[in-house]
Glycerophosphoryl diester phosphodiesterase (Bradyrhizobium yuanmingense), 327 residues
Amino acid sequence: MGRKLKVTAAIMIAVAAGVSINNTSLLAPHPGGKPVLLAHRGIAQRFDERDLKSDTCTAARMLPPAHDYLENTLRSMHASFAAGADIVELDVHPTTDGEFAVFHDWTLDCRTDGLGVTRAQSMAKLKTLDIGYGYTADGGKTFPFRGKGVGMMPALSEVFAAFPDKQLLINVKSRDPDEGEKLAGVLTTLPAGRRSTIMVYGGDEPIDVIRRLVPDVRTISRAAIRSCLVRYIGYGWTGLVPKACRNAMVLVPINVAPWLWGWPDRFLARMNGVNSAAFVLGPYSGGGFSTGVDTAELLARLPQSYSGGIWTNEIETVARLTGKSND
């Protein structure tokens, strides 16, 4: 082997070794502690998730209930935090009287005894509805929560008042930039310390507005998370963190995680260093992001002593399995 070739080989080996050292978790500081648990919709009624479409009425395909909590209610949120959640996710819609209603569906027809588009109503009107009206696990033969959800749809202001020091994730359900501006107006009235405990995700357009008007609130949108992960996989080996990953909520499908440079500890440290919080989801299958890490089998796919974020629809189960249950 010629001298020049030997030098080239030595340089390549040194570079490869440097990249490896820079991206291994073996030498990265381990933050310790237990995972950060995010309860999606709080404690909620589960439903058959097969062949879902954007307009599927999930309340009409509820699984046999194991509890009597309804999603997006103050009661459910209280129970989620009591069960071990660090963060509770909730959905919002602007109302005609200047509030934000906490409710999942774009329309009222599926889940309530009302009709019409949620954002076309006043908060006062929404307070009169029965949000448990449409739930059925037997094709409409029985409705176990009918009459039990009257007046239980909260306003976002009520959630802030009920949980003044708890971490919240707000889901903007539209792609309307005006909604982003309205929510930004609400968030800017909060103290800076309170804003640091709130994250927002949703449609690209409203999230872009919130990111611009309230830059200290961590955000993510579908386009941003795709940009974040693709770019990080592309050049994260350098230690550089893409702009889309900064001051963000970084959602990581569990089957994509091993492809991230420095997974888990060095990756988590890099995200923390740019004021971002990373949360593992269930597997990405090509059709969209999965719902959450909801079973012992999925949880077992995370590295031992993993201390990052976990997104789950089964907060009671996952809190118990991770040792965070308050029972």
Summary: The chain has eleven helices and nine strands. The CA atoms of residues 8 and 14 lie 10 Å apart. The longest helix spans residues 3-23. The longest strand covers residues 87-94.
